[in-house]
Amino acid sequence: MTEALPKMYCANHPTVETSLRCNRCEKPICAKCAVLTPTGYRCKECIKLQQKVFVTARWYDYPLIFIVVAVLTYIGSLIAARISFFIILVAPGIGVGIAELARLVTGKRRSRELYILAAIAAVIGCLPVIIAFITHFILLGFIFQAIYAVLMISSMFYRLSGIRIG
Question: Is the backbone of residue 137 left (phi > 0), alpha (psi -120 to 50) or beta?
Fold first, then answer.
């Protein structure tokens, strides 16, 4: 007769019985604590440790990317004000161009917070021209600036964060 395996309980939920272990640290985990990866289930602590390896940004990358993105976005919004309707076609390309220049300036170092800061800088860069159209009651100009901002910022963010568009 075979011996029954001893009961295991989740390391984070001591009342939950489990037969699942983290494939990295071998800690017993329940379904709530398990994260499915391409190589099997891992605990949330091992996932966090793995993600920290991919954060390479240095402290000076944050002010640098903020300034570069805000200035380039402002210049792009001035261009958008001149070409109005055609900005629908050009804005994603401007976003990709700004993202590539930002990556170049930061030495291709990466961090989720760096990408979020770049998106905030892009919004701030668009604001002066948007506010100018609002204060002068130019509705069509405001609409095209809003379209520019949405298309440019989304393509810039996705390009920076590693998701390739097109």
Answer: left
Tokens of 14: 């001591």
pTM of the model: 0.68
Place of tokens 């109005």: 84
Nearest partner of 157 among 111, 124, 121, 118, judged by Cα: 118
Tens of pLDDT along 103-117? 999 998 888 899 999
Alpha carbons 142 and 99: distance in angstroms, whole number: 24
Q: Which two tokens stand for residue 34?
A: 């398990």
Structural domain boundaries of the chain?
A: 8-53, 61-160
Alpha-carbon span 67 to 160, nearest angstrom = 16
